[in-house]
Amino acid sequence: MDLAFEKRWRDLVTTLSKRFDAGTLDLNAILFLIGVQELGQHAREFKKDEKVALMHIAICVVLMPYGYYQELGRDADGWPHFERVKELPPLASEEQERLMKEAVLGYFETA
Description:
two-stranded antiparallel sheet, 2 strands, mainly alpha, 4 helices
């Protein structure tokens, strides 16, 4: 187990959970927050399909530095669109989660 990585992740979760006065946020909740941030519109209630789109935005944004996605631009409503540049490698679920956590940490540590 990578203790330094686990500590960085716990620290990020703690910081975000306190900032948003929420219970302990999980990876999906953090991805949702990134999606809202990247959309850049006012805070509001989102419909279910918009929530799914926000998660997609977050995944694309955090994986861009790894070369998996590139942003194509925004549509008339201001929603960003992305293109997959290369396929993600086949990963076990634990490896997928680790990649996403690393990508999220990179997002916040370079922001």
